[in-house]
Amino acid sequence: VVSEQVKGFQNISHYSDYQPLLSSSRICERWDEQFLLSGLADVLSFLCEESSDANFFSMTKKLAADYFAVATKEYFMAMALILAHRNIQGSSPNPCVGCVYVKEGKVVGMGYTQSYGGLHAERHAYENVSSAQSLCGAEAYVSLEPCCHHYSWKSGQKITREPCAVFLHRLGISKVNVAILDPDQQVSGGGVQHLLDCGIAVQVGLLKQSAQRLLWRYILHRKRVKQGTKRNITIGLKWAQSLDGRLAAPSGQSQWISSPSSLIYSQWLRYVYDGVMVGAGTFINDRPALSLRHPFCVRKSVAKVKKIIFDPQFRTLRFDKFQDHYRHMKDNAEVYWIGRKDMSEEATKLARMQFPSEERHCVMSIWDPDQPLQHLFENDRFLQITSKSMSLLVEGGPRLHNMLIGADVVDFLHIVTAPLWLGGKHEVCPSGPVLPHDLDHPPYYSLIHHQRFGQDLLSEYAHTHHKTFL
Ligand SMILES: NC(=O)c1ccc[n+]([C@@H]2O[C@H](COP(=O)([O-])OP(=O)(O)OC[C@H]3O[C@@H](n4cnc5c(N)ncnc54)[C@H](OP(=O)(O)O)[C@@H]3O)[C@@H](O)[C@H]2O)c1
Fold it and tell me: 160 C-alpha to center of ligand 1: Å?
């Protein structure tokens, strides 16, 4: 059955086409959709700890045991999925993957993808196997199909490495349980096929929806690369609103709308997205830091999270408190200003005024308002600054959100609704110009997740294009 599926996978071009194949597979579907996300608070709580890998591994076992009374296949795969969280940021733009080796019903090795260019989960888990232990006859649980290509990248250099599928065969693994196939065009079922060709049993699809939810940025990115679309960055919007749908009080204040536990979730979102963007209004009104402050965020290399200010007329650079707001935002992350193409002279003058020479290149006149907004995300300079990024989180304000939704470039919405009423005429989301589409065909989103954070309600939506997540 699996072999037929693999042939099917090699002939299809869209990731969503995998679905009928996966659901026809002989997998155990005793999976609870809310598994990882409702457990997210637990996952976060132990990611917070500056813990060693050994500590992390024992927490992983404990967490999985909380969900599964007995050591089933799902239990081991759940561990692999939790392990994958360990380096969700650092592994980007590679996928974060977890791996568990099980022999005679006991976990003998655990690992996760190391930072970009480092060891894949299968090898890292092997490094953690006690030296006396042979893996001959053991089973492997991996949250993503093992790779079948002979290289990876480190600091822009190609490094020749044995593919993980070959590695697992050399270890003598008897069965490989895979949550989802790798949508990357270099793999796409090739890893599973190699294992099958070597006589290793393979099961595909165990806890597949949890794995899809974990890897949504990666899946969409590889799907777009496969389709050859120039814009391959995933865009998510995040905002906090009142019960009456307002993003700010009439005074313009908005930063206190949601509760502290929702704010932790906001930190998590910043952590998992590769970049953060806000509009000029938000930069001026809110003096946002856009930083990763929570302990689980500072654990790993976070300098990669880029900060982008969308400011068509570069009015923030003329703002009298610019330096104060900029210093508040400046840490070791790169900050960029994006504005209109036809304002490049003005932008150069303003950049000269506000920045020392080495920082001036961060002001980019690349947006052409006469072109559809999606062209911005296909612009060569935009692609250059986001070349290692799969995703961008736009944190407001409402006018920028409105523009992006109107241009139909938004993949995910993360909305926190707090139980308060703000009133006032303005700041309703989305506000701003009339959306450029008729009411018969508005951009449509489907609810994919909701959760309470204290008194707040988190609701998350995916664009209806993305059937994989629905
Ligand atoms: N509750 C929340 O989660 C949340 C989050 C963020 C912000 N906020 C609140 O939102 C407010 C600020 O939001 P905002 O909507 O005023 O500003 P904004 O969204 O931060 O900034 C909008 C930017 O987009 C540009 N823009 C928007 N529509 C455009 C169009 N059709 N053509 C060209 N440029 C366009 C604006 O250009 P111009 O410079 O030309 O105007 C401006 O630079 C603040 O009160 C803040 O506290 C709330």
Answer: 47
Q: State in Å, rounded, how far the first CA of the chain is from the last one.
A: 25
User: Alpha carbon of 362 to those of 19, 291, 327, 375, 394: distances in Å?
Assistant: 42, 18, 15, 19, 18
pLDDT tens string 379-427: 999 999 988 888 999 998 989 998 999 888 999 999 999 999 988 765 4
For the entire predicted model, the pTM comes to 0.84
Tokens of 23: 């659901």
Phi, psi of 9 (to 5 degrees): -60, -35
Q: Which residues line ligand 1 (CB under 6 A)?
A: 239-240, 247-248, 252, 254, 257, 278-282, 285-286, 310-313, 315, 369, 395-400, 403, 427, 432-433
Per the listing, tokens 């190391």 go with: 114
CB-based contacts of 347, cutoff 8 Å, min separation 6: 314, 317, 337, 339, 363, 364, 365
Nearest to 86 by CA among 74, 98, 76: 98
Query: Exactly one of 122, 145, 395, 427 is catalytic; which is it?
Result: 122
Report the DSSP pairing between strands 234-241 and 151-154: unpaired
122 annotated active-site:
yes
